[in-house]
């Protein structure tokens, strides 16, 4: 009986933790996600996340132009930029956005281990 109760508590905690890692798409005032899959991006930016780092300290994209942002994952990582409407991670690795000029700092949005706090980069829109 104790084993069964402990298993149920662990499963409940796991379900809660996993639901906290997910989330819906946020829409911000400075970006718009493509309304349909038929919109073609003029450029693609690939952000690679692995071993507590992103592959570049900054990524540059054109302003007011549809851009496909793709997150290549090696492990459990994600990025979220609220003001740009970007929320990527396992199961949702790419999106098309049109952004206004600015610099958007982002961090890994999924607790990924001891180097999590060091996973910081910038998306520069010009």
Q: Can you walk me through this structure?
A:
The chain is α+β, with helices and mostly antiparallel strands and 126 residues long. Helices cover 16% and strands 40% of the residues. The protein has 1 helix and 10 strands; from the N terminus they run αββββββββββ. It has one helix spanning 2-21; strands spanning 31-33, 43-50, 53-54, 58-61, 66-74, 79-81, 86-88, 94-99, 102-107, 120-125. It has a 5-stranded mixed sheet, with no helix packed on it. A 3-stranded mixed sheet has the order 4-10-9, with no helix packed on it. Strands 6-7 form a two-stranded antiparallel sheet. The longest helix is centred in the first third of the chain and has 20 residues, at 2-21. Residues 1-22 form the signal peptide. InterPro entries: Cupredoxin.
